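Justification of resources, computational component.

The compute hours requested in this renewal are based largely on the per-chain cost of generating structure records like the one below. Each record pairs the submitted sequence with a full structure-token output. That output is archived, and it is also reused by downstream analysis tasks.
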Amino acid sequence: MSFFKKLKEKFIIEPEIVDEKKEDDIESSEEDKELEEDAELQDSAQLEGETEVVNEPEEGQEVEQDEGSIDEPVGETVDEQAGDPFDEAYDETYDAPGENDMDVLQEESIASKFKKGLAKTRNSFTTKINDLVAKYRTVDEDFFEELEEVLISADVGVNAVMEMIEELEMEVKRRNIKDTSQVKEVISEKLVELYYGEETEESIEELSQNPDGLTIYLFVGVNGVGKTTTIGKLAHQLKSDGKKVTLAAGDTFRAGAIDQLDEWGKRAGVNVIKHSEGSDPAAVIYDGIKSAKSKDADVLICDTAGRLQNKVNLMNELSKVKRVIEREVPGAPHEVLLVLDATTGQNAMSQAKTFSEATDVSGIVLTKLDGTAKGGIVLAIRNELQIPVKLVGLGEKVTDLETFDANAFVYGLFADMIEEQETEQEEL
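The structure output for this chain reads:
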């Protein structure tokens, strides 16, 4: 079976199946709505008071004050960067998700989300591949040289491209492929192999969880990448899955960051622990852990101040936060997620390298993948740093945060070619 056909069968759902699912969803959502209305009458007072403002820890409280603790003045920590309107300056006109965003939206298949989210990359990539195939009728050295340039221009990364071209040449010889049009499927197949390598898909994709108690996710990254927005979306996703979630507003430096996370917490209906602006982030995280344990929460998501990788003091402060987490919950944090902006291309790669040296980054969250024509950065990060991409942002809606799937990613890149091949086969 061809690889394009495998992708098609894996991700494309027959229309009648989708229609049946929609009918079932409508019926179940009506029943859920009635139950939710009853629950809201009982819990509305509690939800109004879910945000906890914790006073500064008194002298002697069990929050370590290491030599590496940082007491920098507010406003002198990190240069602001233009970015996601949800994650940068707190703007009253566009500062948090609206009420309608938190409604249960019409469910899309993973394939359609990746297809839509990768439209810019696909349009650029597909055009260049088709032009290349039209230019060369036979597979030769010149063909591979230009293919190399196409892949590098998509930010796949020089090392990853060199490895892939070498494997492509071997595979083309093994299959005795002469026609360049037949190379398209081999490229898609090798892209998936390049990402997963020898690891199983399950071990790469899923966020780690603590089977014996509180799961803690620590989010890090520079300002402007969509960090706080991603936390809000993940909180909503986990809450929808039936998890009890607590957020810790550890970004005490950026103006409006606490209010922004607080608003996300209200919209998602989850508990938020916060101190006053400029307070010690480690103390916030400490109180977040205590609150999450007392409320028997399943997941604690910790926000941290946006920090540039060259700010040594702030990186030291991050280490302090990690030590507090490790002391209070052995084995935690269960994920240290570095949030990167896909639109920054190789700059994101530079950030990933430096953060991975400063802290044990376990996974990447790549935001704004829908806003770039160079989505190949996903493969570059995985190949060069051996850090898996755990989550990707494919749009602005609250439901547009997806678990990364390399097969779905490649389907999104080659969707037009797959549909074109299907049309040609139907005409035969």
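The two ends are 18 Å apart (CA to CA). The chain is about 50% helix and 10% strand.
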